[in-house]
Amino acid sequence: MISRESVYHRPKDNYAYACTKQQVHIRIRTKKNNIDTVKLIYGDPYEWEQGNWIRHEKAIRKKGSDALFDYWQTEIVPPNRRLRYGFLLKDQQECVFFGEKGFFDEVLNDPAYYFCFPFLNPADIFTPPEWVKNTVWYQIFPERFANGNPVNDPEGTLPWGSTDPTPENFFGGDLQGIIQRLDHLQDLGISGIYLTPIFKAHSNHKYDTIDYMEIDPQFGDRDTLHRLISACHDRGIKVMLDAVFNHSGYYFEPFQDVLKNGERSRYKDWFHIREFPLQFEPRPNYDTFAFVHSMPKLNTENPEVKEYLLEVGRYWVREFDIDGWRLDVANEVDHTFWRNFRKEVKAINPDLYILGEIWHDSMPWLRGDQFDGVMNYPFATNMINLFAKGNLTPKQFAAEMNAVLFMYPDHVNQVLFNLVGSHDTPRILTECSENAEKVKQIYTLMMTFIGTPCIYYGDEFGMTGGQDPGCRKCMVWDQEKQNYELFTHIQHLIALRKKYPVLANEGDLSFIESDSEETKWVAYTRKNKADHILVVINTSEERTEFKLPPEFKKSTLTDLLTGRLITSRLDTINLNGLESLILK
Questions:
Q1: Domains of the chain
Q2: Using one digit for the tens of pLDDT, what is the confidence trace for 376-403?
Q3: What are the Cα distances from residue 400, in Å, to 64, 264, 340, 439, 580?
Q4: What whole-number distance in Å separates Cα of residue 332 and Cα of residue 560?
């Protein structure tokens, strides 16, 4: 019997959305392995003939499954850009019609009972910058990447890498150091740099802004930033800056004025202050980032604050031609501010990438009126739980990754910022108990997956480090301390991603579902009109057998990782422990 309580659809967001000016994607969710076929019944609500509504049928394919549900998806051209639609669900025992008003035993002739996609308005189409889909990012923590100009070192700067990082110490990394190391990034294949904050701040991490309109003197000046961006653009590398609009720093001038003048301060409404005088302990009596008293939350509903921050957003785009903004603690800022922010910065550069730091389901921010993408931490969690911690079986991992993919429309997934480590998380090699072969597998998957991948500085050389501040060590430039084999593996994967667009965002991704929880492999296909590629990863240290999909059987396959030919006369292939294959 059809499990009616498990059937879900809403005519918006990730279940019904315009993907082009002509086409709409329609999805429906059903209980896993409960439905045999789904058909879309649709038509223009105003098209009638002799008292009958003119409707059409189209089969919907099952696109993937998670642990509990199947997801079905089709692409449709709405008649006259208007659409009423419902679903015909069949199993071995019954056939039911599902529309906006519930379930019925037969297909109805009245479009009022159907879901409604009123009109395909081009203005409603989610249109992120096209270039992001083909970008491989590299995140730099400027204080720890390279010291190119010792003259601007802050007082007390330590020799490079001479000790472990702490929340307070400085090593002199700066923008000139990045300029001097661009050859390394270009050699790796990087096409986008994400810099954590470079604006004037008290800390080494710079998330406690003092002045949003000034570059921190320890990093350089405006001329240095101009030269960095120009040098990057000459190499085809985009540059994304980090903005902290949720909160300021303790030494931000308006907050200092509040500390000095209390309730008489003209800036008192720039913050969320519950009472005066201000208190820091045991918890601040004003809103902050977490409970950190030195990071007071900004009141982005205040017109003066709003205009000040919008000008910050405009200024660095207008004057420095940056390619993106990464927005810190983006989910705690009001939606109205972000809608205004998008309008203002996109008016200067329509191709600007707006990336929000959100760690959870982010659909409310991804409707085309706020962000282009978010940092895909659910992706990172699944990767670490499978490869590093062993908390997921490969079968469970495939289900969890499908759940992530179906959280958003397809064209949102293509520009999600995929990562496995950042300045806020332990190093990926440390997560993997310093097993570099597991890290290779992680990058094999990330570089052949939908989205826009990011490498955290130094991970390409196998740097280690625990939770912040351990993950913020000085970049290792000593070649004898670099894992060059890991570097060349990632370099090769990036080259493959560029050579075969199907491995990036120009093709469908379908996981191959295992019948057993004991299965040791993860496998999926990437397919477009030009190429059909199979990725198989043996996550265990033991040899395992993999049954080839029908279209890959009894044919000569090329492993794109090694270049070797695999002639499969049987239905299966064997993989060694921790071996990965990319078969074309």
A1: 4-124 (2.60.40.10), 247-297 (3.90.400.10), 508-583 (2.60.40.1180)
A2: 999 999 999 999 999 999 999 999 999 9
A3: 11, 53, 34, 20, 20
A4: 43
Q: Active-site residue numbers? A: 328, 357
Give the residue carrying structure tokens 């400027």: 142
| Residue 113 structure tokens | 């009972």
The two three-digit tokens of residue 584, written as one number: 């074309």
The closest of 431, 413, 414 to 422, measured between CA atoms, is 431
**Which H/E stretch holds residue 309?**
helix 303-320
* C-alpha closest to that of 456 among 147, 190, 239: 190
Residue keyed to tokens 């994967």? 493
Q: Which amino acid is at 463?
A: M
- Parallel, antiparallel or unpaired: strands 24-31 and 69-76: antiparallel
| d(C-alpha 570, C-alpha 552), whole Å | 10
Q: How far apart are CA 90 and CA 108, in angstroms?
A: 16
Distances (CA, A) of 178 to 118, 181, 235, 239, 403: 50, 5, 13, 12, 38
Do β-strands 238-243 and 209-215 pair in parallel, antiparallel, or remain unpaired?
unpaired
- Other Cβ atoms closer than 10 A to 201: 24
Q: How far apart are the first and last CA of the chain?
A: 41
Which element (helix H / strand E) includes 188?
helix 182-188
Enumerate the β-bridge partners of residue 546.
573
Residue with tokens 């639609």: 85
Token pair in block for residue 296: 């007071």
Please, is 258 exposed, middle or buried when counting C-beta atoms within 10 Å of its C-beta (0-12, 13-18, 19+)? buried
- Report pLDDT digits (tens) over 411-467: 999 999 999 999 999 999 999 999 999 999 999 999 999 999 999 999 999 999 999
Tokens of 469: 């501040």
**H-helix or E-strand spanning residue 229:** helix 222-234
Q: Give the count of alpha carbons within 13 A of 37, CB side only.
A: 12
Q: Are 77 and 67 in contact (CB under 8 A)?
A: no
